Structure formats: structure tokens, C-alpha cells
User: Fold long-chain-alcohol O-fatty-acyltransferase from Arabidopsis thaliana.
Amino acid sequence: MEEELKSFVKVWGSAIISVSYCYYIPSKIKRGVHRLLSVLPVCVLFLVLPLFFVFTIFSSTTAFCLSILANFKLILFAFDKGPLLPLPTNLFRFICFTCLPIKLQTKPNSQNHLPKWVFPSKVAVFVVLLNIRNYKSLLPPILLLVLYPLHLYLVLDVLLTIVNALLTIILGCDLEPHFNEPYLATSLQDFWGHRWNLMVSAIYRPGVYSPVRSVCQHQMRSDWARFMGCMTTFFVSGLIHELVYFYINREKPTLEVTWFFVLHGVCTAMEVALKRKMRWSFSPMLSRLITVGFFVVTGYLLCFRQIERSNMLERRANEAALFIDFVKRKVFNYTVSYNQFLYKKNIVVNYTA
Assistant:
């Protein structure tokens, strides 16, 4: 654990220094290819940094924050696009908005008006799921089919909401939420575009979808250009998730996750095309059941089985236990050392008296 914490300090120290360079040097270079070339060495470094970790919690978090989000933000920044513009007012803000999964809120969001009991309820369900994990072998397969995506959603939503709340206080500004109740999605387009992992969607749109669609519009009809933009975005997302899996497991990619995103890309594109041609629609409740059910089933078959095979959840639990034990030992050693110091000090005082 001590070696992992040393690696954590070195990795994130390197990241902060690199982002500081981007704030002072590339930001002064004219947008375009020259600014892109000035940030590319940082992007390459960010692709390497997760490999310095053994613990999955550190490697996956670093991969998500630096190798994916920060790299996309810096590439968009090179062309005066993305969440880093307008340029933050100081270095500390620039580091936070680059390295952390946050985005400045530009317009009020309806999620801010959700009942106050919603988030505590999610926390309570999350705690229950953590305890249920110990009885996984006793649960029927159909229940596991639902529990895996629910566990993933609650882990991300609860932790990222807490991070957002803390950074809102520290930075003194409103931040975009990461999720918008995806279980209420009435279509795949609604799910991926407006409810699931909004931080990533906001980066893919200007970073992948819009450029591909713009290029294709000169070669084909607008409908096909939209289709190509949609498929390219989902394909890139699949490859990026494969990269994250590689950082965690250090095994040859199986491309299962890529096929998951390609499948959802095809279905989303077909759904959009049908909506344009057909006037009727399902009831909201039925639409939600179909959308969430499709995500759960395909996610289990193509994503969560890979997590199951790699024992990722068990490894995370063991890492958490090791970290808690490490903290306990450090606190105990500090307490013992402090008590010994006070004891020796009292002896000296009594002797001199």
C-alpha cells in the first residue's frame, strides 16, 4: 500500500506539473495545429501514467480522469473548444477542470429540483448492494443480471455527486451533474445523449460526433452523415472502454465492450431514423422498460461478464480493506508515538521540578 501511495503522489504530481505547463505555454499559442503539437507530449504522458499502479482503484480512476477526459479536454482546448473554454481565471481552477471529471454548469438543470430524499435513497441502496455482494453465490442469475448495472450506476453516481458537491464549495461555482436519472430514459437516444455520463457526452459531441458529421456531409446525405457521426462516436467510446479495461486487468482486449457500444450505436441510429419516419410512439412506462431492459441485458452479456471473469469487484473490495487496514495502522502508530512523547515529556518535567 505504501508503494501505491508513493506512486499516486508521483503520478498526480506529474499530472499537475504538466497541466500547469498547458496553462502557461500552449494557452499563449495560436489555436490549431501548433497548439495541438504543444499539448501532445502531455497527452502521451497521460496515456502512460495509469500503468504505474497495481491497485485497480488507482489505475481506473487515473485512466478515467487523465488518459480519457483530460486528453480529450486538452485536444479540444487546442482548437478553442470544449469545457476548458473560456479559460479558467487562475491555475488552480484550470488544474481542477482539466484533471477532474467536472464541467462548469452553463444553464440550470432540472436535476437540481429533484426531491431531497432521492440521493439518500441511492446511498442506502448502494450500502445494501455492498452487503449483498457477500451472498452472490446464493443469488439467482436473473437477479445478478440487474444488480451488476445497478451497482455500476450507484457507484459512479454516488461518488461523483459527492465529488461535485465538494468541488462546488471549493471552487465557488455550479457544476454540471454527471447523471440525470438514466433509469427514466424513454429511448436509447435519451439514455446516451441526455442522461448517462453527461460529462463524457459533452466531450464526445464536439470531439468526435461533430467533426465526423461535418466531414461526411460533404460526401453524402445529411442522414448518412448523422449515422456516420453516431457510429464513430460509439465505436470510439468502445475502444476507450477497452483501454480502461486494459489498464485494470493488463490483459489482451477481448473487444466485447467495443461490440456492446457498436450494437448500441446501430440501435440508436435506427431508433432516430424510425422516429423521423413514424408518428406513433410507446407509452413512457413501456419505453422506459424497453430501454433500460435492453441496456441491462446487453450490458450483462458484453460488459459485466468480463468484470465477473476478472474478479474486479472482489479486487476492489480487497483493496478497500487493505487501505482501511493501512489507515488504522498509521493512526495507531501515530497515537502510540504521541503517547510515548507525552510520557517522556512528563518524566522530564517531573525530574526538573
In short: Residues 184-313 form one domain. The chain has three domains: 1-100, 104-179, 184-313. The chain has a mean pLDDT of 86.
